Amino acid sequence: MLEVVDSHFHIWDLNVLHLPWLDLCAGIKKSFSVDDLCKVYAKHEVDFKGGVFVEVDCDLAIQEDEYIFNLKSSKILARIMRAPHLCAHMRLPMGIVGVREPLHIDTSPRGRCLEQSFLEGLEVLVDRNMIFESCNRVEELEDLYQAAAQIPKAKIVINHCGNVKQLTSDYKRAMKKLAKLPNVYCKVSGFATEDKVFVQNLLDFLTGEFDASKLLYASNFPVVELYSSFDEHLRTVREYFGDDADFFSKNTKKLYQINKPQIFASVIRLRPEKADYYKKLHANPFASVNKKIKECGITKYQIFNRDDLLFSIMEYCGDDFEYDMAKMAQDAETQRWWQETDPCQMRIDGAFKHEWWADMKLVYDLNKESMNK
Questions:
Q1: pLDDT tens for residues 163-173?
Q2: Checking phi first, is residue 33 left (phi over 0); if not, alpha (psi -120 to 50) or beta?
């Protein structure tokens, strides 16, 4: 059964929260709960694990924070909360993975994402390893590119395919540029499904420009009912992407670091006559190899050397290590890299037959009271 992790859903209780924008959205002007979300998924043959709650533009951001954190639902796997004004001193609640400042609403001035305060806010998010969710006017995608290019380490997620209505040359040009940046992702949501030709052309364009690892399934529940329906949207993207595990769950889990990090340590011998060449390779590794390492859920990776030994420490934030390592092993550029590095190494004595780098067992952790518990 297809596992689904929804990268973008909303819930609200109108007895608690005031959402002024709902006055213009009669079709969804009522409360929606996590149970309501689970019920719509239950109509489809999928294993719905939960998803990422995204702020709902409540008039009191702190009240929304309290409402969401008090729910304590196991289906809320990560939280993106409201940042009323991105800046160097913005409020960042504990327990969130990122923020969204709505750039598409009337009160947001044109060019907001190019303001100095906004760029300073992106820098803060980089320092905190947090995500910025960009819900912007389609005509300002070029501005978003200019901002992202200035802060290339910022993780930016384009909401709803950039709120596209037509595949104009301006839209394509801006999205192509955004897709080339190292940390820009796109949620596949927000489009009307009635025009099948438009949908096909849009999805063909996005999959042609963005790496598969940077496209995320998103329902936009319940706002999706304003321009399509939850059921039709899910059917549409499932028909196009098939039961692609990366698109429907794994990409989202990795980006939002939904799984607890796993630490792997290993050791191998370095051939003395190859040591200088090995170090030269790693001083300037293939960019494509670093990219693939990150795509496979590895968020930190270091190699240390002492005499003829190499020690590696790796932090993995995916949910299926064997799956991701198999995907890495199938990558042509990674195979080419290994053709250069493998002759520089040799197994340590006592390594198992299936091991190249031999696994190491943790014997002490400062942050754990006892390793025997």
A1: 999 999 999 99
A2: beta
